[in-house]
Every structure is written in C-alpha cells, then in structure tokens.
Fold this sequence. Notes:
By secondary structure, this protein is mainly α. Helix content is 44%, strand content 5%.
Amino acid sequence: MRRQTLATTVAAALLAMASSLAMAADNAPRVDSATSASSRAGCVDVEVNGQRSPSYDCLTNQLQPASAPGAGRKPGLESEDIANKPGNQIGGQFNWSGTSQRMGNTFGNSATPQRPDAAPPAAPVVRPGR
C-alpha cells in the first residue's frame, strides 16, 4: 500500500515537471531556420569588373508585404459581391436616379423623355443696298 502511494506521488511529480517544461517550451521565442535560410538563399550580390549587380529576386521578395495568417481569399460567394453592388454598376437593371435624370419632369407621366423646345428659325440675313 505504501509502495503504491509512493509510486503515485513520484508519477504525479514527474507529470508536473513535464508539463511545466512543455509550457516553458511553448512560451519560448521560436526561430524558424528554414524560413530565414530560404529568404536569404537568393540574396547574392555579384560584382563584375567593378560594377555591382544586386539580386533582383531578393529585392522583390523583400518588397513583398508580409503575409498575414488569414491572408488569401475571403470566405463567401462571389455572387455576394455582385449582389451588393449599386444598380448602376450592374448592367441591365433599373436605376431610379439615372432614369429620373434622363426623363426629366416627364418621368412617370409620359414615355417620351423631356426635351427642350426647338429653337426658333433664324431670321434671314438681308444685306443693305440690295
């Protein structure tokens, strides 16, 4: 009985130590050597006859924004974006404001759009002395 209690106590102590070590390992800063090595792998500057040529691949990678963990395509359907667009950005749909502007004060009264009155005919030009 006493041995069983001692074995249980030792097992509990070992388990507590192992869990505290695991927690310490989780809190430690991580250095991803594969990522840092691959980012520096293409960064080779070359000098030929006194002219320096930088690695444009490396410069391009350095100018790229850091990718966020949730980066990429946002969840949802493409049709949601189309359905949320205003009517004048979707072809073939009625837009109250646009139609009202085009029809003028006849909107709702006539199928013929409002047009300004025709200009009166110009007076004939008469030269004096004839």
